[in-house]
Amino acid sequence: MLQQAETHEEILNKLRKIVGNEWVSDFPEELLLYSYDMTEHPPSNPDFIVMPKSVEEIIEVVKLANEYKIPIVPFVTGNNIGGLTIPLKGGIVLDLKRMDRILHLNEDDMYIIIEPGVTFGHLKKFLKDTNFRYNYPNAPPFASVMANALLSGLNNLSLRYGCMSEVINGIEVVLPTGELVKIGTCMCWDKHWWGRGPQPDLLGLFINWQGMTGIVTKMALQVWPKKPFRDWKFILSNDLAKTYEIVRKLARSDIMNDILLMSVETIKMVLGIPYGQAVHLEGEPHWATTLDFSANTKKEYEAKWEFIKDTFKELKEVDPKAVLSSVQGAAKMYGQKFAEFTNLPFTIGSMLEYGGCTWVGTYMTTNIDTIVKGVKIAFDIIEKHGFEKCLYTRMMKGGHYFAFRFLLRFSKEEEEEVERMRKLNKELFENLYELGAFPYKTPAWAAEEIIKRCDPNWVNLMHKIKKTLDPNGIFNPGRWGVE
Amino acid sequence: MEKYEGPTDIFGIAIYSALTRKMEEDPEYRAFIENLNMNLIVELDYYPLMIKFEKDKFTITRDIEDPTVIVKINTQDFLDIVDGKSSIIRKFLGRKMKFKKGITKLFKVYKIFSKMM
Ligand SMILES: Cc1cc2nc3c(=O)[nH]c(=O)nc-3n(C[C@H](O)[C@H](O)[C@H](O)COP(=O)(O)OP(=O)(O)OC[C@H]3O[C@@H](n4cnc5c(N)ncnc54)[C@H](O)[C@@H]3O)c2cc1C
Q1: Under CATH, which architecture does the B10-114 domain have?
Q2: So what's the pLDDT on residue A353?
Q3: Which of A49-53, A150-154, A337-341, A356-360 has the lowest mean pLDDT?
Q4: Is the torsion defined by CA of A20, A26, A32, A36 positive or negative?
Q5: 3-class DSSP state for residue A27?
Q6: If pLDDT is split at 50, 70 and 90, which confidence band does A338 have?
Q7: Contact: B82, A272; criterion CB under 8 Å
Q8: Closest C-alpha to ligand 1, atom 20
Q9: Hey, of B2, B79, B87, B115, which one would you mutate to test binding to chain A, going by the most A CBs within 10 A of its CB?
């Protein structure tokens, strides 16, 4: 407990006054729910859960937190898989789910303005009857669109547009000291959120900071025109280097929406094979690649498809058993679960069924030798610790960088297993970092490891910025080595 | 959590899922499958699989025993059929799908796969 009982009651009453009785809780059962997530990170209890409905309420809560110097952790659904909403130092978990409006779709400049609680499910439904599409993750439909963008997520148009923070046009944000600031062209005009503009770009003060520097209350995000033709193919293969080589070639061709290169174990997990049984069996293909592309005309579609087939032939020469087929065809056999690859977002059910789910997800170089080496090293480590080798990678931004990650499920019932997973993640981090792989949605422990290894002047600057914005150190403390 | 009793290899899962689904959807197909009594080996170029049809049930395994029928087909040709780019008949006539044993069961094999896909 952070405060004396009297102070606790005092804060509780003040919070109730701000947001209303029913939107504040300090019930132990409810605090417990916010104390942990699906990952191996140790739990830590908050003191209060607060669910504001408006920007004004957030500002009042922030002022109160400054007065009592209690931490605030912004939260939407806690599905970040990095332990990022676990309140390391207690305090207030500010659950933003009630702020869930899609405020505007600008069809001229192709963006939406949303509140933090808008989920992928909401957005998909909203865009269904429009001419626009968004960029979805393989995450559950109930996760936050805004948090995904703030964390530089990797979604199914990220091969075209880069990670999700790159498609933010602007934000409205409550600073740790309670001021409300607009960033992007919206700083000049309330009705123009079309871009970050040519002014100094302050957005970086809030991206990937995990709620340490501000609570974003509105965000403009790009959307893109739907294309009349869209198709998904898949490849099964054995030769990793050659498969990766054609993946890179296709990524650089500028014709693809998305390319995922996965291990066959990942496909098995997606298909619902129970925990512990998603392993590679002798004789099976090792790698599964999904290819997503779209076109404005039939002719354009056919030309793209021809290019894909020609590129595949290069793989076939080296890996004669490699096959190229359609995701829709495979879905006829495997059923709806496989078809979900064409219909993001979706919940990989069998991934979350066992209580534990984690990853070391990284962004890294696209260098072929490095990737092949990375897979080998990581597979050895995962095997050593007795988990499933579910590799799940994505080419990013026209092939400028690569998302290299594993989806690791585990059982949370056994502390020994949780501990083994911690060790595994640490080893993965250490080995992949050596290869130039940077963990995204960086867990606190990984951030501390990075800080030990990276440019100390970067660390100093980061601390200075944090101190300037958050003099009382109340916003999500304990992250990035900042107490 | 539902108990999973099917195969765990990538092609076995495909055939198991499709067969199970089709049997649920189509009672006539279910009756047909449940009355088959044979060991059908599908020799893909990755690895062979056995679909063991017994009274009222079928299982898929990678342990091959007492084959009644052996069908050899490349995975790509198999997937072309699934994709609708080709058909069982065309693959058979073009010698891309060969019966190494049990050709007399040709029509049964045809019915198993054509309905399943
Ligand atoms: C099975 C599974 C698969 C996934 N696959 C993908 C994937 O393919 N690609 C991908 O990118 N992600 C993926 N994710 C991660 C996740 O879906 C996204 O990161 C998600 O959108 C985050 O939303 P959330 O509601 O979980 O955010 P939370 O976990 O609640 O918050 C995330 C972080 O953002 C901060 N935050 C939240 N709201 C605000 C705000 N308004 N202002 C400031 N800070 C804020 C929080 O403090 C925290 O640090 C996956 C998750 C799961 C469970």
Answers
A1: 2-Layer Sandwich (3.30)
A2: 77
A3: A337-341
A4: positive
A5: coil
A6: confident
A7: no
A8: A148
A9: B79
DSSP for A139-192, please give it: S-TTSBHHHHHHTT---TTHHHH-SGGGGEEEEEEE-TTS-EEEESGGGT-TT-
Give the total number of structural domains in chain A. 3
Tell me the per-residue pLDDT of B26-57, one tens digit each, with 9 for 90 and over.
999 999 999 999 999 999 999 999 999 999 89
Residue linked to tokens 């390319």: A259
d(CA A156, CA A346): 12
pLDDT of residue B2: 56
Q: What would the two tokens of residue A338 be?
A: 């496989």
ipTM: 0.95
Q: Is residue A447 part of a domain?
A: no
The two three-digit tokens of residue B53, written as one number? 């049809």
Taking the CA of residue A26 and the nearest CA in chain B, the distance in Å comes to: 32
| Residue in B17, B23, B73 to test binding to A, most A beta-carbons within 10 Å | B17
- List chain B domain ranges: 10-114
Closest Cα in chain B to A319:
B46
Following CA atoms A425, A430, A432, A434 in sequence, which dihedral angle do they give, to the nearest 10 degrees?
180
Of A6, A25, A5, A27, the closest CA to residue A15 belongs to: A25
Q: Give the CATH number of the domain where residue A303 resides.
A: 3.40.462.10
Per-residue pLDDT 10s for chain B (117 aa) are 456 889 999 999 999 999 999 999 999 999 999 999 999 999 999 999 999 999 989 999 999 999 999 999 999 999 999 999 999 999 999 999 999 999 999 999 999 999 888
Euclidean distance between the first and the last CA atom of chain B, given in angstroms as a whole number = 28
C-beta neighbour count of A56 within 10 angstroms: 12
For residue A4, pLDDT over 90 is answered with no
Chain A residues whose C-beta sits inside 8 Å of any chain B C-beta: 236, 264, 267-268, 271-274, 277-279, 281-285, 321, 323-326, 328-330, 332-335, 353
pTM score of the predicted model: 0.95
Q: What are phi and psi of A451, to 5 degrees?
A: -60, -35
